[in-house]
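Researcher: I'd like a candidate sequence for this fold, 471 residues long. If you have to choose between options at a position, lean toward the conservative one.
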């Protein structure tokens, strides 16, 4: 006897009818907190690897994660397309289209992740690491980490998809609860797998990847059961099978593909920037400082800003779907003010206690610490630009303008920083401070271009719809 599905949770209409500041904050604070908590698992990874493996392990995680992001961000771009559709249909109070969109996004992501990312990533991993000029020692630590992430990342991707779907439909609290569980699982598993416990050997850097994928798989398995059984604001429709709905899939790629290209551009820019870091005189030390300072500590600004970006996209898309574009504009302005407040606080910590922050990751080498302190000084300024850029990007993407952020990212994350590094390298040879300046200028450029593009208002006329369901 089949169990009847639970009734779906009602859409939160206060997002399109109530005070804007409350709507943004209602979605933003759980997402920001979830991202910070999720970022803490990366902190734990780096701290434990730094203590038990050394700064070579920190550099290995940094370069492997940067390479992995290039591919993962492209596949997860489908979730941005999904978010655009879900937010619009939620604003229009059309539950049937919301659930169809989420289900097709799941099927497409599964096919891409399992059928393409896993086998190709495993085979190409050894040839990808030399692209970032990693030393032989760093490559030896990074290869197993990278292969594990490529092959077993579907659970983590499903978690990102679910979080995006729920937030776009107005529920940011369920992803927060799931994120806390996943982070706790990840930390416990990493404590065991990185250093070893009892009969379980120490896997070192590879153990960090193992803990991440196991935790993601367990939480995502539970989430899938809930999506099929009902009770959440989104769910999987019954009786559809695995037949693709090309109307939805085309819309996913229409809005998601530019975001995927944007993510690839940004992360290719990051990989190429790592090549410049790897060309410095003390490359391993510089890569370790970059991995901890930029990838981990700066994430307390970027991850909260990404949380605001997701909240802004949901509020902007829902209000545009409800025919209220003026509320969309107000939401972006409110989110930018929230982000600046966070960036000021975190940036002050970068300036006041940089050595204490670096010490958390086992950074003791004088050269690494000196480079890390210098980098954090630049990032304290860069955070102000990136948080504004990301909130305005959320406004653009949430309304369906996913192409403009792609072009902006090419200019700000590739042309400006890499062009500056290339010119200075050709003229007199690069110094670490040159690369840190390039990062700041790239973020400043992205901020200015994002604000200007959003203020042009062309997003008001973007149409979003899919064909009716077939019988």
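Model: Candidate sequence:
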């Amino acid at each position: 006897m089949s169990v009847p599905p639970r009734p779906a949770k009602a859409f939160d209409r206060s997002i399109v009818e109530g005070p804007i500041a409350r709507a943004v904050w209602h979605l933003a604070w759980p997402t920001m907190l979830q991202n910070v908590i999720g970022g803490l698992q990366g902190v734990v990874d780096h701290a434990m690897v730094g203590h038990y493996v050394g700064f070579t392990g920190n550099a290995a995680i940094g370069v492997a994660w940067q390479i992995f992001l290039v591919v993962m961000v492209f596949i997860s771009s489908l979730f941005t397309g999904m978010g655009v559709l879900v937010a619009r249909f939620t604003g229009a109070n059309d539950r049937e289209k919301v659930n169809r969109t989420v289900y097709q996004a799941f099927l497409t992501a599964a096919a891409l992740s399992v059928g393409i990312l896993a086998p190709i990533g495993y085979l190409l991993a050894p040839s990808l690491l030399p692209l970032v000029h990693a030393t032989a020692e760093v490559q030896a630590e990074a290869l197993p980490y990278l292969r594990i992430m490529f092959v077993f990342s579907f659970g983590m991707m499903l978690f990102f998809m679910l979080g995006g779907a729920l937030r776009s439909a107005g529920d940011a609290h369920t992803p927060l609860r799931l994120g806390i569980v996943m982070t706790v699982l990840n930390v416990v598993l990493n404590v065991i797998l990185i250093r070893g416990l009892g009969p379980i050997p120490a896997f070192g850097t590879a153990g960090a990847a193992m803990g991440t994928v196991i935790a993601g798989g367990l939480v995502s398995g539970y989430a899938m059961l809930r999506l099929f059984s009902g009770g959440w604001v989104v769910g999987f429709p019954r009786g559809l099978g695995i037949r693709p709905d090309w109307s939805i899939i085309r819309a996913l790629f229409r809005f998601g593909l530019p975001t995927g290209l944007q993510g690839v551009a940004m992360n290719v820019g990051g990989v190429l920037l790592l090549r410049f870091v790897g060309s410095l005189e003390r490359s391993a030390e510089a890569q370790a400082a970059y991995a901890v300072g930029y990838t981990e500590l700066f994430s307390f600004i970027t991850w909260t800003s990404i949380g605001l970006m997701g909240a802004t996209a949901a509020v902007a898309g829902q209000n545009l779907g409800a025919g209220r574009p003026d509320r969309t504009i107000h939401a972006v302005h409110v989110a930018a003010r929230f982000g600046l407040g966070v960036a000021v606080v975190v940036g002050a910590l970068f300036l006041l206690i940089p050595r204490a922050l670096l010490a958390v990751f086992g950074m003791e080498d004088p050269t690494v610490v000196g480079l890390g302190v210098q980098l954090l000084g630049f990032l304290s300024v860069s955070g102000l630009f990136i948080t504004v850029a990301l909130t305005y990007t959320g406004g653009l993407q949430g309304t369906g303008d996913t192409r403009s952020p792609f072009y902006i990212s090419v200019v700000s994350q590739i042309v400006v920083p890499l062009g500056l590094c290339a010119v200075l390298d050709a003229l007199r040879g690069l110094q670490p401070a040159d690369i840190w300046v390039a990062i700041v200028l790239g973020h400043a450029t992205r901020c200015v271009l994002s604000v200007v593009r959003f203020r042009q208002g062309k997003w008001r006329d973007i149409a979003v719809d899919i064909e009716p369901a077939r019988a």
